[in-house]
Specification:
Layout lengths: L9 H9 L10 H4 L1 H5 L3 E5 L2 E4 H17 L7 E4 L5 H13 L2 E4 L6 H11 L3 E5 L1 E2 L2 E2 H11 L5 E5 L8 E3 H4 L15 E6 L9 E5 H14 L7 E4 L6 H5 L2 H7 L3 E4 L5 H11 L3 E4 L1 H13 L9 E5 L5 H11 L2 E8 L2 E5 L6 H6 L3 E2 L5 E5 L12 E6 L11 H7 L6 E9 L5 E6 L3 E4 L2 E4 H9 L4 E11 L3 E10 L6 H10 L10 E4 L13 H9 L2 H8 L4
Parallel strand pairs: 1-13, 3-4, 3-5, 5-8, 8-9, 12-13, 12-14, 14-15, 15-16, 26-27
Antiparallel strand pairs: 1-2, 6-7, 10-11, 16-17, 17-18, 19-20, 20-21, 21-22, 23-24, 25-26
Bound molecules: 5'-O-[(R)-(benzoyloxy)(hydroxy)phosphoryl]adenosine (OOB).
5'-O-[(R)-(benzoyloxy)(hydroxy)phosphoryl]adenosine (OOB) binds next to helix 10, strand 16, strand 21 and strand 22.
């Protein structure tokens, strides 16, 4: 296995193979199998453009050859930073076939995250759009490249502009396909990013074998088949829309993928009507926006059969509203880039569907729910969710110290999520032990933001916590102890923007205190701060001794 990655122990790997979970097929073949049966069928729709399976397959071969001609070799890492454009799907297969390893950055990521991802993965190439969401990625790419000599190649999808040495994606597609050695299916196929536990996001290696199993399981659980039309609303660079079942799940069964540039009803509803979309995946805030929008316009959503909702907590009431407004079945989806997927079954009774976050997908998902000492809690009680299984990774990339804490001695991953298990095997996710704010599905590592805030000269101490929000579920509240005059929120967010971090990480609210409350052992008392964050500022100021 790639250096810096942790393999499954032999006994477990043998078991997963014997059970037929791991089938020894490289992910590039996921599309290759399809042309025989689905060749002339439409695989991908983006705007006015449509690709058949055969065309997509050929494009992937050409781009694989083109990347190889650029000197990119099997096992090397390529940071892919694209919005929902067809080139992202082609590149995904091109890299799988070449055996080079995509590292998927999220569209919202900016200089700091990209710089970190390139360094942490030792990337040799970086792939960007020209302009996306009003942001010129070419300038960012040129800057990152100048600072990182290991980054040999920058590819621009669209117009490379005038910066030196940026390669046109269109040139890659001109290359004649070449015969390429097949990558080892037991080895790493791609890297996903963790939602963040401590500090910067960690890299999660996923193998061909384990990811394909993830794709197969979730496609089957959502009842996908060649009549499926999947609308990719969330970023395809994220595991949920990529493979749970998402784009790869749909293509694995010969269905059709429709790319949506963003999830607003204005964009999505006409596409649903025009393409007769049957399945999509949303985060809860978007589900609520859609539910409200349906009432106000005459959209034809009658083709929708299943809407997945996941990525952050959904209340039973919100789930009920979405399902009623969208007029189709809901599927709760609790998942993580690290592996485990827990999803509702198509035949779950209504109450379970609304109140539980589904059931783990594989019979070989081993679940433990434990107390602070790693002892299993009594059945039905809440504890931290630990997991081990055929598509749950065994270690973050090049992170042995962190891995020693993130896993038990017998290889169970500590998810940092709090859960209880129902007698039916369904999981109810009740909260979180990890220091993360889940902003409607976008994960913000408190420590990462605090570290940036601490670099501001006016800040002596900083703590970021979640505060409840009716739409997003949570927003972030930053508590600071100033040095001298207190900074304003606008000053801090401008400062953070200048440091080049993704906009969703910017604090939503600022509270200024004289001191941060501490626990008995002298750590910042975040539970107390979370409580304070819910109170009106004046009362909070009195309780924790903030400045007048
Ligand atoms: C998905 O993946 P990530 O890696 O961005 O985030 C994982 C974390 C989980 O550990 C949990 O804290 C939270 O996001 N989460 C949920 C949830 N789904 C994820 N919390 C409550 N309810 C849910 N339904 O977010 C992801 C990956 C694949 C499929 C779906 C979501």
């Amino acid at each position: 296995m790639l250096e810096g990655c942790v393999p499954w122990p032999r006994e477990l790997a043998d078991r997963y193979r014997a059970a037929g979970h791991w089938r020894g097929e490289p992910l590039g073949a996921l599309l290759r199998a399809a042309p025989h049966t689905h060749g002339p069928r439409t695989a991908l729709v983006a705007g006015q453009d449509r690709w058949t399976y055969a065309e997509l397959d050929e494009q992937a071969d050409r781009v694989a050859a083109g990347l190889r001609q650029q000197g990119i070799r099997p096992g090397e890492r390529v940071v892919v930073h694209l919005p929902n454009v067809p080139e992202l799907v082609v590149l995904c297969f091109a890299l799988f076939r070449l055996g080079a390893l995509p590292v998927f950055a999220l569209p919202a990521h900016r200089r700091t995250e990209v710089d970190y991802l390139c360094r942490a993965s030792d990337a040799v190439a970086y792939i960007v759009p020209d302009v996306a969401g009003g942001f010129d990625h070419r300038a960012l790419a040129a800057q990152v490249r100048a600072e990182l000599p290991a980054l040999r190649t920058v590819v621009v999808v669209g117009d490379p502009g005038h910066a030196d040495g940026l390669l046109r994606y269109a040139d890659l597609t001109e290359t004649q396909p070449v015969e390429l050695p097949e990558p080892d299916p037991t080895d790493v196929a791609l890297f996903l990013l963790s939602g963040g536990t401590t500090g910067v996001p960690k890299l999660i290696p996923r193998t061909h074998d384990d990811y394909w199993y993830n794709i197969r399981l979730s496609a089957a659980n959502a009842g996908l088949d060649s009549d499926t039309v999947y609308l990719a609303v969330l970023p395809v660079a994220h595991n949920y829309a990529l493979a749970c079942p998402g784009v790869l799940g749909t293509l694995s069964v010969g269905g059709r993928v429709v790319l949506c540039p963003n999830g607003s009803p204005d964009e999505a509803f006409p596409l649903i009507a025009a393409e007769r979309v049957t399945v999509t995946g949303l985060v809860p805030p978007l589900g609520l926006i859609w539910a409200d929008a349906v009432a106000n316009r005459s959209a034809d959503l009658s083709s929708l059969r299943l809407v997945q909702v996941g990525g952050s907590h959904v209340t039973p009431e919100a789930a009920r509203r979405m399902s009623a407004a969208l007029g189709c079945r809901l599927q709760q989806s609790f998942g993580m880039a690290e592996g485990l997927l827990s999803q509702s079954r198509l035949d779950d009774p209504e109450d379970l569907l609304l109140t539980a976050q589904g059931k783990p997908l594989s019979p070989d998902d081993e679940i433990r729910i434990v107390d602070h000492d790693d002892h299993p809690v009594p059945d039905g009680e809440t504890g931290e969710l630990l997991v081990r299984g055929p598509y749950t990774f065994r270690g973050y990339y090049r992170a042995p110290d962190h891995n020693a804490r993130a896993f038990t001695d017998d290889g169970f991953f500590r998810t940092g999520d709090l859960a209880r298990r129902l007698p039916t095997g369904h999981l109810v996710i009740t909260g979180r032990r990890k220091d993360v704010i889940n902003r409607g599905g976008e994960k913000v590592s408190a420590e990462e933001v605090e570290n940036h805030v601490l670099a501001h000269p006016a800040v002596a101490q900083a703590a970021l916590v979640a505060m409840p929000d009716p739409l997003l579920g949570e927003r972030s509240c930053l508590f600071v102890v100033p040095r001298g005059e207190a900074p304003r929120l606008g000053q801090l967010t401008s400062f953070l923007r200048e440091r080049g971090i993704a906009a969703y990480k910017l604090p939503d609210r600022l509270r200024v205190l004289d001191t941060l409350p501490q626990t008995a052992v002298g750590k910042v008392d975040k539970a107390r701060l979370r409580e304070e964050a819910t109170k009106p500022p004046a009362r909070a100021a009195r309780t924790v001794g903030a400045r007048p």
